[in-house]
Amino acid sequence: MNKTVFIIVDGLADLPIKQLKNKTPLDYAIKSNLYKFLKHSKFAYPSVLGNFAPQSDSGVMADLGYDPLKYSTGRGWFECLGLDMQPKDGDLSIRVNFGSVKNGKLNSVRTYMSNQELEELSEEINKKVNLREDFQFKAGEDYRAGLVFRHSKNVFSQFVSNNEPGYTAKFFKNGAKISFATGVKDREIHKVKAVRKEAVYTASLLNEFILKSSSVIKNSKVYKERKKKGLDAPNYLFLRDAANKDPKLPNINQKYGRNWAAVVGMPLEKGISTAAGMTLISTSEEKDIKRDFYDKVEKTTKALSKFDAVYLHIKQADAVSHLGKFHEKYAIIEDIDKIIISKLANVLDLDKDTLVLTCDHATSSELKRHLNSNIPVLISNNKFGFSSNFSEVSCSNNHIKGIKKAVDIMPFVMSL
Fold it and tell me: How far apart are CA 377 and CA 396, in angstroms?
């Protein structure tokens, strides 16, 4: 069977930047190795969630063929599943950020820390925060964590707001729940609110957790040592995307008759891949970007000997976009070309196999937030003719008309 490599570069798309000659980082970056795939390729330029700026969970789900407006029950489920917290129906699963508050106002929604620091803080919270319900708190990557309240006699509700600014939860009549990136509009610190009466208890529980956890963090060794060193110190937790139901994604292997593997390092993507029925290839996020790329492409090529299709997720482009580092963004794109694309060009059979290169959403390096822009998609297959430089503009000017939404990408690719 022909092989497929489906690459999602998190936050790859962007807006034109003056310092890059009014080009986007994707357009500006040198992508010499990608031309081997452009010889036989077509572009797509679909929307992800229409007028809404998606998070990564919505974007990845859509790219893999799962309509978020149908399946999403809240990002928290995938995040905690990817952290191996094994959430079940009735549990309350939540994505958490370590952040900071200064003089009662928002200072930062992301306090980057080492894995050891995250583990130490998580252990402190699990040991010292006493609540009326059983919970598990688990460290993720950089500034992230997962929180699961275990099902009890009290019913937990997903109908609660986020207290993390910049992401607004919306609820749909069919039961779907999605948070959209709206950007930080003020520096106020907001409590979790009940959107429906049934969620009053859940909102109260989460606010109590935030209050008690913040006290534990500020008395922790990690906090005191970071303050002493003059580093940004976490003192507050930001919660979003509480979920209390399994999204029940249809099995991707059965859906397309292909055996899928996933080379993904972050909890969110691990959770989505697991929920979709993919086999996870053991990997993690290396701090050294080039080493991370070599590791992931090596595992991708090895997986191709056992699996029909591999989903590869690359996180770093989004991270530097949120920090406004557009120079680093186009450098990362060039490294993707030099390390990952060059290796795949030598491993894949360009006469038979398929490469897909796209993103889950656009992230503006100047605005430092997600956008509701359409996403560029490269589909390389011997059935197609030559396409020019892969960029947002190229995809906008010449794209497959039948791929109007991101959820259309996977069915099209699997039909080749």
Answer: 10
pLDDT digit string, tens, across residues 113-149 = 999 999 999 999 999 999 999 999 999 989 999 999 9
pLDDT in tens, 308-360: 999 999 999 999 999 999 999 999 999 999 999 999 999 999 999 999 999 99
Same domain, 126 and 261: no
DSSP per-residue string spanning 237-266:
EEEEEEE-S---PPPHHHHHT--EEEE--S
* CB-neighbour burial class of residue 193 (10 A; exposed 0-12, middle 13-18, buried 19+): middle
Which CATH number belongs to the domain containing residue 43 in this structure? Answer: 3.40.720.10
Total domains, the chain: 2
Domain match, 95 and 164 both: yes
Instruction: Report the alpha-carbon distance of residue 39 to residue 390 in Å, rounded.
Output: 12
128 and 148 share one domain? yes
Inter-CA distances, 355 with 106, 107, 173, 177, Å: 42, 42, 37, 31
Query: Measured between alpha carbons, how far is 235 from 163 in angstroms, rounded to an integer?
Result: 14
Which of 295-312 are b and which e, b meaning 16 or more Cβ less than 10 Å from the residue's Cβ?
A: bbbebbbebbeebbbbbb
